[in-house]
Structures are given as structure tokens and as C-alpha cells.
Amino acid sequence: MIHLLNLLAAIALLVWGTHIVRTGMLRVFGENLRRVLAASFSNRVRASLAGLGVTSLVQSSTATCLIVASFVGKNLVTTSAALAVMLGADVGTSLITVVFSLDLSWLSPLLIFVGVVVFISKQNSGAGAVGRVLIGLGLITLALQLIVAATRPLTEAPAVRALLVSLPNDVLLDIVAGAVLTVLSYSSLAIVLLIATLASSAMIPTTVALGLVLGANIGSGVLAMLATANASPQVRRLPLGNLIFKTLGVLLFIGLLPQIHVLLQQLVPTVHQQVVLFHLAFNVSLAVVFIGFTGLVGRTVDRWLQEPAPGVDSLRPRHLDPLALNMPSLAISCAAREALHQADVVETMLRGILPVLRNNDLRLAEELRQLDDTVDELYSAIKFYLTQISGEALSKDESRRWTDIVSFTINMEQIGDIIERVLQDIEDKKVKKARSFSEAGMAEIVHLHERLLSNLRLAMSVFLDGHVRDAKRLLEEKAHFRDLEHEYAANHIARLRDNTTQSIETSSLHIDLISDLKRINSHLCSIAYPILESAGALTATRIRQSQFAALDAAKESAP
Length: 559
What we know:
Blueprint: H1 2-38, H2 44-58, H3 61-73, H4 79-100, H5 107-121, H6 126-156, H7 158-166, H8 171-185, H9 188-200, H10 206-227, H11 233-254, H12 257-267, H13 271-290, H14 294-304, H15 328-351, H16 353-359, H17 362-387, H18 396-431, H19 439-465, H20 468-497, H21 501-505, H22 507-525, H23 528-534, H24 545-557
């Protein structure tokens, strides 16, 4: 029993090591990996090479598939070009398998020692992420050694040998078993290494191992299909096309397995190397044979999975791509785009205040109040999406952007709540009582409203671009808006003193309205604080004037 437990623990360590390497690589190269993939779609060969290179870094063709599938879903790349990337990605995974199949026992303690020292000493930097990768690589090589040690006593047990002899020599059953193991472990790399180790320890026959390897390749394709099961039809095209290639390749290889087994025994001395080289040969063959058919298969899956008909509610979350979660830099961009979508809905609510005021439009007021539910829904969706992004894979800048997005969406959600209360007050205190503002009072509300809309657009620009000069302008609006509120409140009191009938009837609403508009402006201005703080332009209590004096001077000297 203890030997079986040791084997299971070693397998778990192998899977965990591949996960650590993947997240570490994403943290070090995340945005650059995105650029490499985005720039590689001009021709099939370049796309395949880019897929090979990226997958060699992230240790997972499934992760590459999900990243590229998100590009297909956004119509940034055709399905045929994305399929070429995946042919190269599968070759990349098999090459990494060959590397780990070498005798690296001497390297494991060195990698773990150096990785731990680097990670602990520089944990929050890029060097710390590199240390994390070294730890993962060391754990993979250590896990392979532990698997060998754990399987040796098992192979010597009479009961296990009797069980292995009684196993049916059914290649289809082997393929299904390999696919299931890959889906359960979420790593074809780990499973192929495990199969090779078990075969070299005589736990399973070589012919069975080759069938399991074919199943592992099918399993990696199924993994991507399962991960995109709830995605849009455009996103599901790439996993489906990739699974078609893998299935066709397996069908071609099934009939050739006996000849391939004999050939491997003649060319390769050890069983372990026979298994991993078979895995490499399978994926290289797929890339060579099917690279010319990516266009045909791409067009076919495009017809099978067509875009949904127009008319879908555009106010619901639309940029939070679950596939992008495998690439944190891409996921952060998706969340930022959805935050701007939330701000667009808030702007629609804010713009509607004036028509309701002027026209006493109860129907419009009801529609605008219902939009607050959309703002709340977008806020919840963005917040949940951000919590799914692996913090371990985020760089320092990405972590700061993560915080900025959360802060921005909170402010938008609170602004939506304020606007909803404003609209309700307008209904209760003005529309239903058939009252109206004085001409001067209405002019003041219009002025504040126009200034508020301008500040909302400026706040969205600050959030999007992070320019310090715009952030300073936005923060200055807080003081200007406060001065206007005081001025207009004093004007209203003067009109009350003059016994202006309309001002007396709408006094409570007028004072509450300009106060609420100022509160909305305060939420908008708070978006500037993270930008100014990161630029070192804030002290503990006020704006650092010397910083802004230099900015003003530069602005005045600009043509």
C-alpha cells in the first residue's frame, strides 16, 4: 500500500511541477508571448514555429490553444492560421517531453536549490518568477526519479505481474485510458512522461504504452474542447479543428503501430526513449501532413460553428473571455475593456438625467433606473473574473493594473447607485408633483451636468491611458466642482430670499441634486489617485505642487 501511495504522490508532484513552470513562464513572458502569437499569423510555417516556441515555454499545448482560441473568438485571426499554430504547439510539447526524458537526476537538486534561493531573495520581481520556473523544473525531474523508485517494488509484486499479464491487448482501450488520464491530470506532458517511466519499469508493455500515448494526444484535444464548452461558437472552432487533426492522426497510426514498434526497437535502445520519441514522431507527422489542410479544416469548422445571429443584448458582459484566464496579461486587458463597457452604461444613465428633468419623462426614468441593475451585474462579473486570474502569474505592473480595474468598477457601481436615487427623487419631488425649476436654477443644473459628463469622459481616458497630466486635470476638477456647488447653493438661497415660487417648490430637490452631482464627481476624481500615486505625484495630504509645476511648464512650452 505504501508503494502505491508513493507512486500517487510522485505523479501529483509531476503534475504540480508542470503547473509551477507554466505559471512562472506566463509571469516572466506573459505579454511578450501574446505579441509573438499575434505577430505570427501571416503564414502557416511562421505560425507553427510561433506555436512551437510559445508552448515550449509554457509547457502546455492546451494553454496555447486556449490563448489562440480567444484570438479567433475576437476575429483577430482566422481559424486556419490558428490551426497552424496548434500543429506547432503540439510539436513543442513533445520536444519538451524528450528533454525531460533524459537523465537529469544530477540537475534536479541544483535547480531546486538555485530556484529557492532566487525566489526567496527576490520574490516580488522578475528574477523571483525565474526562480519559480527553476523550482518547477527541478520538481519535474525529481518526480520522475520518485516514480521510477516507486514503481520498482510494484513490478516485483506477484499480484501486479499477474494483473499486467491479464490485461487485454486492445489498442482502442489503451487510447481511451490515455485520454482519460490526460483529462484528469490536465497535462499531456506529465502523462506521457509517466507512461514512458512505467513502460521502462516493465509496469506496462511497450505496445500498451504506445496506445496510451495516442490517447494522451486525444486527451489534450478533449481538454481544450471541455475548457471552451460554454464559450461562443467562434471560440470553439479552434479546439474542434485541432481535435479533428489529432483524431485523424490517431486513426492513421493505429494500423501502423506494430510496424512502428518494430522500427523503434531497431533504432532506439531503451523503452523510455522509444515512448517519448514515438510521441514526438506522432506530432511531427501531424504537422507535416496536415499543415496543407489547415485552410480546408478551418473553413469546415467555420461552417459548422457559425456566429450567432445579431440582436443579442449588448449590455451584458461581453469582453470577459474565460479562455484569456490562461494568459494573465490578456485577461487583464479583457477586464479593462469590460470596465469601460460598464462606464459606457453609466454614461447613458448620466446623460438621461437632463431629458427626465426637462420633459418629465417617467418612462425614460424607469428605463434608466433599470440600467443600474446592468451596472451592478457588470461590476459583479468583472470582480469575479478578476478573482479567477492567478495572482502568482501576474507581474508587478499587472498586479497594479488589477487593483486599478477593481477601484474603477467600484466607483462606477457607486455612481450608478447615486444616479438611480437621483432619478427616483426627480420622479417623487418634481414629476409626480408637476413642479419645475426656475430658469436660473435649471441653467445651473445643466452647467453642472455638462461639466460632469466631461469629467466622466476624462476619467475614462485616465483609466485607459494612465497619463499623469490628465490625472492631474481630473483631480483639479474636484476643487472646481466644490466651488461651483457652493456658488450655486448660495444662488439658490438668494432666490429663496426673493420668494421665487419655483425655487421654493423645488428647493429640497435642487439642493439634493447639486450635492449628488458633486458626489458623483468625487467618485470620478478618485480614479486619478492611483495614477498620481504610482507616479510619485502625491504626498500624504495633497498634490505635490513641484511635480505639477513642471508639467504645467512643459504644457505651456509645447507648440
